[in-house]
Specification:
By secondary structure, the protein is α/β, with parallel strands linked by helices. It is built from three helices and nine strands; from the N terminus they run H-E-E-H-E-E-E-E-H-E-E-E. It is globular, with a radius of gyration of 21 Å.
């Protein structure tokens, strides 16, 4: 497997050149990082070129690297735990998991959105229609916008939901709560009334297990 991935990594480097920012092998998988501006061109060729033939998009997920710290990442970038200085090129990224049935190989592609305030990437829905709901999920949970998506709207949260719950700065209690108002006869939204608190779980040690 390692030898096959080495060959694939070499072919990808030759085919895409500067469009690739790097690659790494970890746990029997190859991950390549692609420039955001080159995303559509790279993905189109990965899907359509017989030398690669990644005809299936298995998964697509958003990532928030805002508090990624303390240890070196798989790509060699990290956050310093002392001053939280970001070494990643940006906060938000999208990771694509691709499968080539013709060559029996998988590939993981990571792309960072350049603008942290407005993370924006191009949709790959026209290349792999399976991306439709995956991109809606990343939009809903991380606030990553996919230009060219045919129907980019929330898919998991409620219609009146505020914010993006998978962002690391999103409060556990949320910003808005929903309840049914008997007097008004309808569902209403209001600011969260739950006071944030920390719950310390009780630790059951093995030597005391089963004792009262």
């Amino acid at each position: 497997m390692a030898a096959d991935l080495n060959v694939l990594a070499s072919r990808l480097s030759e085919a895409f050149g500067d469009a690739l920012l790097g690659s790494v092998q970890h746990l029997g998988e190859l991950t390549v990082e692609v420039r955001a501006s080159e995303l559509l061109g790279v993905m189109t060729r990965l899907a359509g070129d017989p030398d690669f033939a990644f005809e299936q998009l298995i998964d697509l997920c958003g990532m928030d690297y805002s508090t990624y710290g303390g240890t070196e990442s798989e790509g060699g970038r990290y956050l310093k735990s002392d001053d939280a200085t970001r070494v990643f090129p940006a906060r938000f990224a999208v990771v694509y998991h691709l499968l080539s049935l013709a060559h029996n190989v998988r590939l993981r592609v990571r792309v960072f959105a350049e603008d942290e305030e407005m993370p924006l990437l191009e949709s790959v829905n026209d290349i792999w229609p399976a991306a439709n709901w995956f991109e809606r999920e990343a939009f809903d949970l991380f606030g990553i916008v996919f230009s060219g998506h045919p129907d980019l709207r929330r898919i998991l949260t409620d219609y009146g939901f505020v914010g993006n719950p998978f962002r690391k700065d999103f409060p556990l209690s949320g910003h808005v709560e929903m309840r049914y108002d008997v007097e008004q006869g309808r569902v209403v939204y209001q600011p969260v009334t739950i006071e944030p608190r920390e719950i310390t779980p009780r630790i059951i040690r093995e030597e005391n297990f089963g004792r009262n």
